[in-house]
Design a protein that fits this description.
Strand order of the largest sheet of chain B: 2-1-3-4-5
CATH architecture of chain B: 3-Layer(aba) Sandwich
Helix content of chain B: 40-55%
Radius of gyration of chain B: 15 Å
Distance between the termini of chain B: 31 Å
Shape of chain A: elongated
Oligomer: heterodimer
Number of domains of chain B: 1
CATH topology of chain B: Rossmann fold
Number of strands of chain A: 31
Structural class of chain A: alpha+beta
Distance between the termini of chain A: 44 Å
CATH class of chain B: Alpha Beta
Number of domains of chain A: 5
Largest sheet of chain B: 5 strands, parallel
Radius of gyration of chain A: 32 Å
Number of helices of chain A: 25
Structural class of chain B: alpha/beta
């Protein structure tokens, strides 16, 4: 018996020394398991950032090690499966593992090293390089399409180069000890010394040349001979979790010959006693100090100020603006009386109250550099400095920024001489007042609200979202996704990462909380509920809802009080070292850069995170298994079993282990001897309710000629040659290659109780008629597959459908449906006369399927 | 032993000991929000010294620490007052350490990382248990 099995599987190692299929398949299963485990661990780690968990440094070290180990073994398994060394994958892994190790040992890792980066290229993903403040401004300009003064940032690598060049990094180290000893005098002394050293230090020549070149390029672009800029601090952590408000220096109205000195000044302010003290108090380590410096065109402000997007202490649902004539600095410093404007947070943001201050002077740019005070004409002293239109415009912009960062914001702004609103800075507003929404208020509001559904599916990312639903069914919908909407979709897809920055929330019918998209939701902190089963049937585009992904409830309408409660929650844990460390580590772990398996960038060398490697290996492993059976299976088939069935499919079966109950040496297999769940369901579907359309199909002359003249490739040889259709089975697995009629179908499926391992891969190709009819048939298949939650791609008449991670009963149903589909489409293209036939046949088929799978 | 805080009506007095400051930093405000009185320590020597001075209603202690470990603190706490409930939290959870903790009188054994809600619930259970135990004797006050 043992010999028989060996003989049976001998074809898997023909001329080269291949491993037996059972071994390869074990590896494949192991890849699936590890893949699952890695995604779960990554999700857990992401979960820890959500604040509900208490974790410590030990946890971070342990989980990093476990994860690295899993990814390494994943690649090792894959190397056995595809019989290659996969050096590129191992190298990618090693790079990531090294970076994680360095972070754990206290070294800060930067992935890129540009000395100067234009504002037009900035976004939050570059906050390591540009500091949080300038990265935020990049988002505001490039993602929210608001105006900010043009400019560039002198990056943190430049900061390190500058300090290293002057041997100043080591000089700062004793600070931690002084802090520990509570020796403020020593720290003060060190701060003074450090600042003096920086102010007189030499800039590396290459760096000063880059800064001046960027300045000149900006002047050239804006055609300003006498360009003046504002130099602003943009340190690590600044305007991030800790506000660092006013801790670092800005230098205004700087000319070209002052730029390098101003740069030194801003850098030196990183070591002012107050700023240093604040960092140490917040638990920042010395290696987390880095100062990027923003360099932006000066804006001649007509009217300027600061807006707080959230001011519940003034009025419910209120925001607060302070405004003066001229430049913004007096408002920030709090040295002059300002107009106080209270606006509603709800569109169209009506004025709630206005208190006008006496404003005899304004701050303006001094011709020689710096700023100076100027007397205002008396007519301007006691009038509002903002028009109602400006107030509304400001409120709209401010709410847009708040929505993006999901925190109340403190925003510095100015209306320039052209009347354009310029955003100068935005930072999270820490609200330390009484909690705005006592529990009573919340329960009152939610009790009155209509619940669309509750307790359905899984929370992938906690949070509250309020907004209008937008249904996404295809890539065109995705491209049209509006800012601030809640994404509604049948299935989850990592492709949604493209709009996550502008989505308030995500709701899907199917999907797993450990899937790729859930990980991305956490990365973007988009409140997400997956696998609700009914979301798309209960909601439609335009419905306003409140998505409570903390209690798992979807309410109809806007329950503002829930949203506001979240805005005021204290989240001091975000300031701790462990939290920051975990977040930094996750940058090497969870972002997914390899989004499109069809894209050029889908390569081992492009893997920058563990997630990338995991995704790549998963995708390639499935491909590998399919090509293994496709290329080698038919070629080396020696003693397979013939399936005894009334269905005209001429199926030969190889049992790789546990797929049937018949003896290994048996040359035939009865349908009832099949254990393999996917094959059983497939055959059920094929044989169901006349799905196997055996009536002769009248092939018209055109179709006949087309089939007659078509050159078949080897794989599409004569359909008369039956008996070569092949299926490889295990108990939960099936890989089938079929030519039926003129079609070539591959189905690869794994169905078990382990929901995360489940998948069906369906590939359909070929046909005898002219291309247009075959394309219609492809459209029909795609329509049906999509109806059953497959992710479908069509290339001409090639249809690829993928389905993952549904429960066993649902997978089994879909397998039956696929069986029916294979039978139904056997010669369908000969009947596809018009485009209308696509829908017609889809309806017939779906109706027939209802009784087969009970949907 | 100079003070006793376990009288009915007064807030629960909790001692937290973990050599990783982050754990104390997270737990302290969470318990304070619930109205409990909290003292935190990052070395077991100071915590043990404090346990000799005062009776705590609840002691939450890490297991693996430099100097005296969590088992010693557990024993110390139970010795200093029979009414003290001890919750052991550890990142090195094994069945053996859990068994040993319970054998030495721990109220609960929680593996790190844990959810804030879990430990809050745990403390609530202790509170209820104490109320039940004290209720028969306690005079009714309105």
């Amino acid at each position: 018996m043992r010999h028989g099995l060996k003989h049976l599987l001998a074809f898997w190692r023909p001329s080269t020394e291949s491993l037996p299929f059972t071994v390869l398949f074990k590896k494949f299963q192991s890849i699936l398991e590890r893949n699952n485990r890695i995604l779960e661990l990554m999700a857990d780690m992401g979960d820890k950032l959500g604040g509900e968990y208490v974790f410590d440094g030990h946890y971070i070290e342990e989980v990093s090690e476990t994860l690295g180990d899993l990814v390494f073994k994943l690649i090792s398994d894959f190397s056995i499966l595809n019989q290659h060394q996969n050096a590129d994958l191992f190298l990618a892994f090693e790079r990531i593992r090294l970076a994680i190790g360095e972070e754990l040992s206290g070294q800060h890792i930067l992935t890129t090293g540009e000395a100067v980066v234009p504002l037009a290229q900035l976004g939050h993903e570059l906050s390591e390089l540009a500091g949080a403040k300038m990265a935020n401004l990049g988002d505001i300009r490039n993602r929210l399409a608001l105006s900010t003064p043009g400019g560039f940032v002198i990056t943190t690598p430049s900061f390190f180069e500058f300090l290293q060049h002057n041997n100043l990094l080591g000089k700062a180290r004793p600070a931690a000890q002084y802090w520990h000893d509570q020796d403020e005098e020593a720290l003060k002394h060190l701060a003074d010394e450090m600042q003096q050293s920086i102010l007189t230090a030499t800039l590396p020549r290459r760096l000063s040349a880059r800064i001046l070149a960027a300045f000149d390029a900006l002047a050239e672009r804006r055609q300003q001979h006498n360009l003046r800029v504002a130099m602003r601090s943009s340190a690590w952590g600044e305007d991030g979790c800790s506000s660092f408000a006013g801790q670092y220096q800005s230098v205004l109205n700087v000319s070209r010959d002052q730029v390098l000195d101003a740069y030194r000044q801003v850098v030196a302010s990183a070591y002012s006693f107050e700023a240093w003290h604040y960092r140490l108090y917040k638990g920042y380590h010395e290696n987390e100090t880095a100062m990027a410096v923003g360099c932006q065109m000066m804006v001649k402000g007509l009217v300027s100020g600061v807006i707080h997007t959230y001011a519940p202490h003034l009025a419910a649902g209120a925001m607060l603006a302070s405004a003066v004539w001229g430049l913004c600095a007096p408002v920030v410093k709090g040295i002059k009386a300002t107009d106080t404007i209270v606006l509603s947070r709800t569109p169209p943001y009506p004025l709630i109250s206005l208190a006008i201050a006496d404003k005899p002077k304004q701050l303006i740019l001094a011709p020689s550099g710096g700023t100076e005070w100027e007397d205002l004409p008396e007519a301007l002293h006691q009038v509002p400095c903002m028009t109602p239109e400006q107030m509304e415009q400001l409120a709209r912009a401010a709410m847009s920024i708040e929505r993006y960062y999901k925190r109340p914001q403190e925003i510095e702004w100015t209306f320039d001489l052209d009347g354009t609103l310029q955003i100068l800075q935005a930072r999270p507003l820490r609200y330390f007042g009484e909690p705005f929404a006592p529990k009573q208020l919340i329960s009152d509001a939610t009790r009155r609200a209509e619940i669309v559904f509750a307790g359905k599916g899984f929370i992938a990312q906690r949070g509250i979202a309020v907004g209008k639903v937008f249904l996404v069914e295809n890539d065109a919908d995705l491209a049209a996704f509006p800012h601030g909407a809640i994404l509604l979709s049948r299935y989850t897809s990592p492709r949604y990462s493209a709009i996550m920055h502008k989505a308030e929330g995500i709701l899907t019918d199917v999907g797993s909380p450990t899937g790729h998209m859930a990980t991305l939701s956490r990365e973007y902190r988009v409140p997400t509920i997956v696998n609700t089963e009914i979301a798309t049937s209960q909601l439609q585009t335009g419905d306003e809802i409140t998505l409570d992904a903390t209690q798992n409830i979807v309410y109809r309408g806007n329950i503002g009080v829930l949203d506001h409660f979240e805005l005021t929650e204290e989240e001091v844990f975000e300031d701790s070292y462990e939290y920051r460390l975990l977040r930094r580590l996750l940058k090497f772990i969870s972002p997914l850069n390899l989004l499109d398996p069809q894209g050029e960038g889908f390569a081992a060398t492009a893997c920058r995170t563990y997630h990338d490697i995991t995704r790549f290996v998963h995708e390639k492993a499935v491909e590998e298994l399919i090509s293994l059976s496709e290329q080698r299976g038919a070629q080396y088939l020696s003693a397979p079993k013939r399936l005894t069935t009334a269905l005209p499919i001429g199926l030969m079966l190889i049992d790789g282990g546990g797929g049937t109950t018949c003896a290994p040496e048996s040359r035939t297999v009865m349908p009832e001897q099949i254990v393999s769940l996917p094959l059983r369901e497939l055959l059920n579907g094929m044989g169901s309710l006349g799905m196997w359309c055996t009536e002769p199909v009248a092939v018209d002359l055109g179709s006949f000629m087309s089939s007659f003249t078509r050159t078949f490739s080897a794989s599409l040889a004569s359909p008369a040659e039956i008996g070569r259709n092949l299926v490889v089975v295990l108990d939960h697995y099936m890989n089938i290659n079929m030519r039926l009629g003129y079609h070539f179908t591959i189905i690869d499926a794994y169905i078990s109780e382990a929901i995360n391992d489940n998948y069906i891969y369906f590939r359909f190709l070929g046909g005898v008629t002219e291309l247009i009819r075959r394309s219609r048939r492809a459209a029909f298949i795609a329509k049906v597959l999509e109806r059953f939650d497959f992710r479908v791609e069509i290339h001409g008449d090639l249809v690829v459908g993928r389905l993952k991670k549904l429960s066993l009963p649902r997978m089994a149903e879909r397998m039956r449906m696929v069986g029916g589909l294979v039978g139904y489409t056997r010669q369908l293209d000969a009947r596809m006369h018009t485009d209308k036939d696509v829908n017609h046949h889809a309806e017939i088929f779906l109706k027939a399927m209802q009784s087969v799978i009970g949907e | 032993m100079t003070t006793a805080t376990g009288t009915p009506g007064s807030p629960l007095h909790i001692l937290i000991l973990d050599d990783e400051p982050i754990v104390c930093k997270r737990l302290k405000p969470a318990f304070q929000k619930m109205g409990y009185e909290v003292e935190t320590f990052t070395d077991s020597a100071s915590a043990l010294a404090r346990l000799h001075e005062t009776t705590f209603d609840i002691v939450i202690t890490d297991l693996k620490m430099e100097g005296a470990d969590g088992m010693q603190v557990l024993t110390g706490a139970k010795e200093s007052s029979g009414t003290t409930h001890v919750i052991v939290i550890t990142g090195f959870a094994t069945l053996d350490t859990a068994k040993e903790s319970y054998r030495k009188g721990a109220f609960d054994f929680v593996a790190k990382p844990f959810k804030l809600r879990d430990i809050l619930d745990c403390v609530k259970r202790i509170e209820e248990k104490r109320r039940d135990e004290q209720a028969p004797d306690a005079p009714l006050t309105v």
